[in-house]
């Protein structure tokens, strides 16, 4: 399989696609390595993770250049991704040292007198990890770092669009001292290599980040394995009249168009109160049309190419369909190969694809509202439930949203896009099952073992 530079189309490198036998060998190697890695003391696991974090930092430019070319992500955001991956590994190095349980007051039960109970966490064993293209380093880090911190071994299948970034991550871990077999990288297409891995009998857990249809498929074929699914969203943000527009406008622009909108938390539905809608929209359009679209290696670039021609085709088709159904295009929408100029729509309806499905493209729809309750209802009217944002200075409105909006994360005075790598992160309903964010991923990648001493020996 070759990997191309998504801007120039040049071949950057190639990897060998795994066969079914390779998958069986990889999981068997992971099982064998687990016998020692699972017994490796926490301080040693922690030291290797810390060393990996240091090495990621030392190779910052090299990694960012590869992300930039392989994923088409603008240089400044590629650098941010490397810094975040370093922090994810640092959090994991810390987390490795505090995986613990608690005592259970056994005598609270009429059957528990004379007994002493506690539980602790044990690694699940082999983790099968499958990752998407849009954060080819940090989303790989979000699988590997907590899995290794907890004492698991991993077989990783990264996205077929970004195999080289994952390979470089694996090289960094090897150089940081990770023993052979603890991590095995298998490359290839999802419906073949991905499914062989998910259905292999050895992994005890599947940790997947990607699209809802693939997540649903994985859930149906995984059998009796623990499954974590980090899926998509059609993220929304409300801007109330008391918002700091000066700050909110540039933040909303970045939230809609960073990485060409190919972020699971990308701002797709922007609800503006009528009192500020006109002023906000004018500033938003001005900032959007000022974005630099083009070669992601250019340090001034804001928006690089989309991941594939098919992705850009789909974005263009959805935009045109919305316009044909009555929406107005206020800016952008130009197309040149994989480049797609940030598009701003208005007069959209909730049933249009650009509104009710995940666009995963530089497309945002502006909806003007009158009543806050109505805006909350619209924000929550989605089959997805990953994150949402609300700009308001009114604490009552903020708490109304906190209570009502069914999402995994609600950002007050920010957009849906905010994420720090240690916070619990994940979605409800079609956005997934389970949580990541290092400590929370550790919880999902460990089993509780209960121990009960009968002190009375009766
Ligand atoms: P995708 O679902 O097409 O692919 C993700 C991974 O799954 C790839 O490695 C792919 O090869 C593999 N895959 C595909 N079919 C498979 C199958 N049948 N069995 C096993 N594996 C299979 O997603 P993508 O296009 O790479 O990424 C975009 C999607 O990822 C969007 O929906 C986005 O919202 C989501 N995403 C979610 C998060 C999150 O944390 N919630 C983060 C980033 C991306």
Descriptive overview:
The protein is globular and about 75 Å long. The termini are far apart. β13 and β14 form a beta hairpin. With 458 residues, it is of the alpha/beta class. Helix content is 41%, strand content 21%. The structure holds nicotinamide-adenine-dinucleotide. The site of nicotinamide-adenine-dinucleotide (NAD) has 30 residues, from α7 and α8. Nicotinamide-adenine-dinucleotide is lined by residues 130-134, 139, 157, 159-160, 189-191, 194-195, 198, 209-211, 214, 217-218, 230-232, 264, 358, 360, 386, 427, 432.
Keywords summarizing the entry:
458 residues; 22 strands; 41% helix; globular; alpha/beta; binds nicotinamide-adenine-dinucleotide; six-stranded mixed beta sheet; single chain; seven-stranded mixed beta sheet
């Amino acid at each position: 399989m070759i990997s191309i530079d998504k801007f120039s189309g040049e071949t950057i490198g190639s990897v060998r696609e795994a066969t079914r036998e390779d998958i069986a060998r990889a999981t068997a190697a992971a099982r064998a390595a687990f016998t020692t890695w699972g017994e490796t003391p926490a301080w040693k696991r922690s030291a290797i993770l810390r060393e990996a974090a240091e090495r990621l930092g030392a190779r910052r430019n090299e990694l960012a250049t590869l992300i930039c070319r392989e994923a088409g992500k603008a240089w400044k955001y590629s650098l941010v991704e490397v810094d975040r991956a370093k922090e994810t590994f640092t959090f994991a190095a810390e987390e490795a040292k505090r995986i613990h349980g608690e005592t259970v007051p056994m005598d609270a039960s009429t059957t528990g007198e004379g007994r002493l109970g506690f539980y602790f966490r044990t690694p699940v064993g082999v983790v099968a990890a499958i990752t998407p293209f849009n954060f080819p380093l940090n989303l790989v880090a979000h699988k590997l770092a907590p899995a290794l911190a907890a004492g698991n071994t991993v077989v990783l299948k990264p996205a077929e669009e970004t195999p080289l970034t994952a390979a470089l991550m694996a090289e960094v871990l090897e150089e940081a001292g990770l023993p052979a077999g603890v991590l095995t990288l298998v490359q290839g297409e999802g419906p073949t290599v991905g499914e062989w891995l998910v259905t292999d009998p050895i992994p005890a857990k599947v940790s997947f980040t990607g699209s809802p249809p693939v997540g649903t498929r994985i859930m149906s074929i995984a059998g009796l394995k623990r499954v974590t699914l980090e899926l998509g969203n059609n993220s929304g943000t409300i801007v109330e009249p008391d918002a700091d527009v000066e700050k909110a406008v540039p933040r909303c622009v970045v939230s809609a168009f960073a990485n060409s909108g190919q972020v699971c938390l990308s701002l797709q539905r922007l609800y503006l109160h009528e009192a500020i809608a006109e002023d906000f929209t004018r500033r938003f359009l001005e900032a959007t049309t000022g974005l630099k679209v083009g070669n992601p290696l250019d340090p001034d670039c804001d928006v690089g190419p989309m991941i594939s021609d098919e992705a850009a085709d789909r974005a263009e088709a959805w935009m045109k369909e919305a316009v044909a159904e009555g929406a107005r295009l206020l800016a952008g929408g130009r197309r040149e190969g994989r480049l797609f100029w940030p598009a701003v729509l208005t007069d959209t309806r909730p049933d249009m694809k650009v509104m009710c499905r995940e666009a995963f493209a530089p497309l945002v729809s502006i909806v003007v509202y009158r009543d806050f309750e109505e805006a909350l209802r619209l924000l929550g009217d989605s089959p997805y439930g990953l994150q949402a944002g609300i700009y308001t200075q009114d604490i009552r409105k903020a708490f109304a949203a906190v209570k009502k909006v069914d999402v995994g994360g609600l950002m007050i005075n920010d957009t849906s896009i905010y994420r720090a790598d240690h916070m619990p992160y994940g979605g409800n309903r079609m956005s997934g099952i389970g949580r990541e964010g290092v400590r929370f991923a550790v919880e999902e990648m460990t089993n509780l073992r209960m121990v009960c001493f009968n002190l009375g020996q009766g």
